[in-house]
């Protein structure tokens, strides 16, 4: 909202022999390092991308929202779609966070010659925080969130040599939490 630009880039996590197996997200604000978050978050991102696409198509509870831009995979009010933090091997939380929370927002829609009405909309609030506590926020429709997450998944699969993140063999992957 302040005119800053946040870049989110997947970076391969490698095993002891150097083979890539998952991703971490590198954050940059206006080109400067801003944080490193979400170690082993690729599988969760792939699952979220699929969920947003299904919700936009009107599957499940999402169909109760007439506008596809208001459709998200989690129908709980003000729920969190993801929260990625930086963690050191010591398990201490350190620098950086990237999270996405859904919010329901009432908007007044004026009607010409008639009385206006309230309309509920849903938006994804994507927030990034640096180690120093400086935050950025973007407000996205479900179409914008779908494009953002799908782009991250495609880039992550590219840095993993084309491996499909939706079929992650890592034990414990996809528990909804990232280290």
UniProtKB/TrEMBL annotation:
Region annotation Disordered: where it falls in the sequence: 57-76
Biased composition annotated in UniProt, kind: Basic and acidic residues: 57-71
Source organism superkingdom: Bacteria
Name of the featured protein: Uncharacterized protein
Species annotation: Nonomuraea pusilla
């Amino acid at each position: 909202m302040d005119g800053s630009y946040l870049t989110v880039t997947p970076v391969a996590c490698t095993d002891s022999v150097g083979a890539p197996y998952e991703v971490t997200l590198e954050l940059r604000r206006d080109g400067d390092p801003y944080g490193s978050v979400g170690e082993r978050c690729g599988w969760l991102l792939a699952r979220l991308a699929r969920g947003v696409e299904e919700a936009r198509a009107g599957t499940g509870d999402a169909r109760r929202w007439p506008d596809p831009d208001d459709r998200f995979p989690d129908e709980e009010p003000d729920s969190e779609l993801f929260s990625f933090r930086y963690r050191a091997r010591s398990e201490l939380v350190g620098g950086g966070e990237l999270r996405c929370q859904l919010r329901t927002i009432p908007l007044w829609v004026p009607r010409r010659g008639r009385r206006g009405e309230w309309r509920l909309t849903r938006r994804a609030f994507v927030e990034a925080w640096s180690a120093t506590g400086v935050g950025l926020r973007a407000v996205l429709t479900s179409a914008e969130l779908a494009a953002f997450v799908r782009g991250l998944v495609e880039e992550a699969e590219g840095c993993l040599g084309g491996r499909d993140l939706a079929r992650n063999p890592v034990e414990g992957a996809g528990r909804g939490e990232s280290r």
